[in-house]
Amino acid sequence: MPQTALVLGAGMVGVSVALHLQRRGVAVTLLDRQGPGEGASFGNGGLIQREAVFPTAFPRAGADLRRIARNRSIDAVYHPSALPGYVAPLLRYWWHSAPERYATAVRGHAALIATCLNEHLALARDTEAMALLRPIGWMRLYSDARLLEAALAQAELARREHGVNFTALDGAALAAAEPHLQVQRLGAVHWTDPLSVSDPHALTNAYAQRFAEAGGRFVQGDATTLRRAGSGWQVQAAEGPVEAATVVVALGAGSVKVTGPLGYAPPLFGKRGYHRHFRLQGNAVLNRPLLDTASGFLLAPMRAGVRLTTGAEFARDEAPPTPVQLARAEPVARGLLPLADAVEQTPWMGVRPCMPDMLPSIGPLPGQPGAWCAFGHGHQGLTLGPSTGRLLAELLTGEAPFLDPAPYRPDRF
Questions:
Q1: DSSP 263
Q2: Could you tell me the CA-to-CA distances from 212 to 97, 207, 215, 218 in Å, in that order?
Q3: What is the pLDDT of residues 256-299, one digit of tens each?
Q4: Which of 89, 204, 219, 354 could join 237 in a cystine, given CB atoms 3.0 to 4.6 angstroms apart?
Q5: Distance, CA of 37 to chain centre
Q6: pLDDT, tens digit, for every residue of 22-42?
Q7: Which CATH code, of 3.50.50.60, 3.40.50.300, 2.130.10.10, 3.40.50.970, is assigned to 1-57+97-130+198-268+355-413?
Q8: Residue 293, exposed/middle/buried by CB under 10 A (0-12, 13-18, 19+)?
Q9: Which pTM was predicted?
């Protein structure tokens, strides 16, 4: 077992890896160019998604593809100039979304998802993080009877095969649960297992504080300076070079910038997302997060206000923010809830790290002894950070892993 480790990336995944390694006696230095939780972990729907056993597949229906191709939707937009760079990974994503291959993705994804609540609670227990985890679940609303029937059938399958819990609400029950909803809907699926996080940034910081209080070290630096140093690794931090016997790359969408020069360049691709908070008018409240299927975005009650999140934007890494989805979503959101002023002047933007087979890379970096991968979680980095941290730490320290790591092995690419 190595005595020292560098963990590159201080989002939910990296912080969780650092904590779990530390608990196994490894002296860990956590490095990021920003503070803990200031990357993609900062902006999301704030859900620990125990229900998310079915990963999002590439659309295969012609109607969906034509709608997205028009580039006028809320849930998916693209920069035409960026499309050449996305052709290869999106074709692989489409290929892996075929029913026979998608079933493989579900098995691997569901195995990780099943552990997410227990693993989060194991890190949050006896800390201020517990107050951030609200056992209220979230709801998906439907106005189309056919879509609602299909959603309920899928929910029953999730309950039967993966132990997921839900409640079906009709229109009247939905109106009673969310009295300030300004539209009528046919019904909703209330996923009751997920934890709703009132401040995702604060949650990552609470875990990082636990790491620091136990003697962990956090430094700011440039992960792309990683290089071999004897039998170990070295990276340049603001305070000077930092060395360790082993290194874990947990940099989300930026991971290939570090692993590529080491000979490992999996087909990781980024989806940009945005959010903005709004106050509610008068005494209006939103009791739990909700996603209106007809609208295509999530509204979630947070400490800062009601968070309006967007779907996916496909753009070049260097492209400036273009929050067109928020501009399209805001007037629709105002029709759903009595939103008042925006809290922030400028929307937040981040990048989700996605793999075409819908599974993260967790395990040894191919061809590089002493280097490890923990990235590619798509929209589930917040959900799966602690589970990934435990699995990676067990593999790295030679413990028996608490679940089969084979589906996530980096050398599958």
A1: T
A2: 41, 9, 5, 8
A3: 999 999 999 999 999 999 999 999 999 999 999 999 998 889 99
A4: 219
A5: 12
A6: 999 999 999 999 999 998 889
A7: 3.50.50.60
A8: middle
A9: 0.96
